[in-house]
Amino acid sequence: MSDIETADRLARRRARVLPVLAILFIAQQATYFSRPGEELRPVDRLHVSAWLVLSIILLLGLATGGSWLRPARVRQLLDDESTRANRTEAMRIGFLATMAGAVMLYVLRLSPEAAWTGVVLSFLSFSMVFYGRFRGGKWRTIRMVRTQAELLATDHDHDFHEHRDL
């Protein structure tokens, strides 16, 4: 299998796996919130530590695109220009939403459980929107790099116009 086919297969799998990871992440948090106010037992501390490790791995995966165990060429194909642009926009929107949520929690004096419910619902809805857009297939028609024929057709003589030195 070529690197391009491998990258395409991994991109499809990533779109299916991320919502599942989000559900696992949320389920782990639900068990933590199920006993508010109780003192943590050693096993609970292990549970919180595992959740923290999963949180860090998920954040690193979202920030870098993941696929750390794949060859560099496949990672490069997975992390193309449109993927980086979408990730940057998602991080920007996520940051703004988090700040707006923190201000709302402070102003409305809501509990951590209410904040958690809001994060869960927004995360699940964004995951489903991402998956739906991926399944729609419009991304297949978007090309960032033109074919050789298109490049030759638009390659004009750059010496035709005089250059101005400003």
Q: Structural class of the helix and strand makeup?
A: mainly alpha
Based on CA inertia axes, which overall geometry fits? Answer: globular
Strand tally: 0
Largest sheet report: none
CA-based gyration radius: 22 Å
Number of domains: 1
**Average residue-wise pLDDT:** 76
Strand content: under 5%
Low-confidence stretches: none
What does this structure look like?
The chain is mainly α and 166 residues long. The protein has one domain (3-138). The protein contains six helices and no strands. The protein has helices at residues 3-33, 42-64, 72-78, 81-108, 112-136, 148-153. The longest helix is centred in the first third of the chain and has 31 residues, at 3-33. The protein starts with a helix and ends in a 13-residue tail after the last helix.
Q: Which structural traits does this protein have?
A:
166 residues; mainly alpha; 6 helices; globular
Task: Summarize the structure in short.
By secondary structure, the protein is an all-alpha fold.
Describe the secondary-structure layout.
Elements: H1 3-33, H2 42-64, H3 72-78, H4 81-108, H5 112-136, H6 148-153
